[in-house]
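Example record for the data management plan.
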Amino acid sequence: MVKASAGGGGKGMRIAFSEKELRENFNSAVNEARSSFGDERVFIEKYIEFPKHIEIQVLGDQFGNFIHLGERECSIQRRHQKVIEEAPSSFVDKKLREKMVDQAIKLAKAVGYYSAGTVEFVVDKNKNFYFLEMNTRLQVEHPVTELVTGIDLVEEMIRVAYGDELKLKQQDIKFSGNAIECRIYAEDSSKNFLPSIGRLTRYIEPVGKNIRIDSGVVEGSEITMFYDPMISKLCTYSSDRRNAIKEMINALDRYYIEGVETNRDFLSKILQHKNFEDGLYSTSFISEQYKDGYDSFSDEIKNKDVLYAVATFLNFQYLLRAASISNQLKGFNKTVGNIWNVIDGKNSVSVKINYNNFNNNFDVYLPEKHFSIKSNWKIGYPLFSAIIDNKLHYFTIQRNGPKFRINHKGSIIDLLVLSERHSDLNKIMIPRKEEDKSKFLLAPMPGLLVSLLVKEGDSIEENEPLAIVEAMKMENIIKSDKKVKIKKVNCKEGDSLEVDQIILEFY
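Corresponding structural encoding:
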């Protein structure tokens, strides 16, 4: 592993499994270290495969008193940056915890440290642990510790800095429940987690008694290429880990961000993965399970019927409102039918919807299923919640006429709701041809073209580096996905790129 000596947050860090990869990654690590920390020094250390990232939160004063606030697990990472953190760790048992805590406090005392600090360890599958580093500051993931202990770490840091002695003793610290934090990043998980920039045209945060969200943005804020892409930290808390996960999945479904791509859906999908539910994951989880990233549109949805029912309900609500408009021309009054066709790609499903006066629900009938839907949703609001068959569900929706884009539990589906006549006409519509971009290398994100690694006339092998683009303090190596020959170079090193700008043309 090549790692920036002054680094943190995964910047200036590269893993090499061969001499070729070491040559490719060494310069990128040096450049990132210089750009992020003003210090280009790097060091090389052994890389432990299948590790878990476990850290101990310590708190000490200027009088030599120290306590610990348990551990956090931060093994879900991409590009060596933490993505999901939780406290406590389901992997750490009492014996391991005692050993790690003992070493963490001994280290803090040995260097004369005081205030809140975090001692990070790499733990292998046999529960051997190795010192990684000590962060002498407040960690991004500190809220999960606060949620399970009830201790305000910032307040304690201020008291210690003021010169007060710790009032808390180790026996005063009571651990309760489980907490999870998801880092919401402005990035595209379907494009190898490339940063996404733009203005937040719509921004709605989830609210609830078991939800905590720390953010620095509001609707209208701009996400730029000059800073880290983290938008917020979303935390949930519950009496046990399984319910904390469930709370987080629901909270993500109630989090609406428009204007930039985010990792919201990807986080939801990780939380639903069996290995995560069982605690059987390491820091290589994302690179192993999602080698090509994650595309919300390509995810296989097991139960589409409920989404068909929701689309029919939403369409029906819009049409009922249109039919209720006063002063309509006589003879042209809008009427709303109750039989609709839901078009899902090449599939068409007949759906019937009726209002049930007895229980004030809507009954939705599919060929082999029936759903009872009750909701106080307001037309036009992008978040839709409904009691469907006596169970509360959350969805994100976008509408364009009869077209509905529904996002639920990390998956997105585009549906078209048409009358039978319009459905027949839709079958003979000529589909729009997609533009062929296979002969171009397009900038995957806005950023700075740091290096061009090819020239006109070069023959390039598959997976060979073509260019390096820097965005949000991270260098991104763009590689060829097939054998090509360079026809034209449209940009030069040092250019500021816009998204989808043509960098190279191929024969």
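Summary line stored alongside the record: The mean pLDDT is 93.
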